[in-house]
């Protein structure tokens, strides 16, 4: 399946859960060092209410995997960057997410 590019560095293959797209666009706007963000699979969960929450979980070959929780669902986010986990968590905070 071909990736559709939105705003240059936000790759959209799946839909994006409510509130997360705006936070990701702000993250990319404020941080040109981030090469790309690829949202992954969405799964329903019970505890995803209120403000967008993000948990940076594991390193990948070219960055980090994170989980976003919002609007009754969770979504994987693959962030391509050369940052440490703490720096990425701080960038998510500045973009408006609650980091867990």
Describe this structure in words.
This protein is of the alpha+beta class. The protein has one domain (4-99). The chain contains 2 helices and 7 strands; from the N terminus they run ββαββββαβ. It has helices at 20-30, 85-94, and strands at residues 4-6, 10-12, 36-44, 53-60, 63-70, 73-80, 98-99. It has a 5-stranded mixed β-sheet with strand order 3-6-5-4-7, with helices on one face. It has a two-stranded antiparallel ribbon with strand order 1-2. The N and C termini lie far apart (32 Å). Mean pLDDT is 89; it is low at 1-6.
Keywords summarizing the entry:
100 residues, five-stranded mixed beta sheet, 41% strand, globular, disordered N terminus
Short description:
This protein is α+β, with helices and mostly antiparallel strands. The protein contains 2 helices and 7 strands; from the N terminus they run ββαββββαβ. The longest helix is centred in the N-terminal third of the chain and has 11 residues, at 20-30.
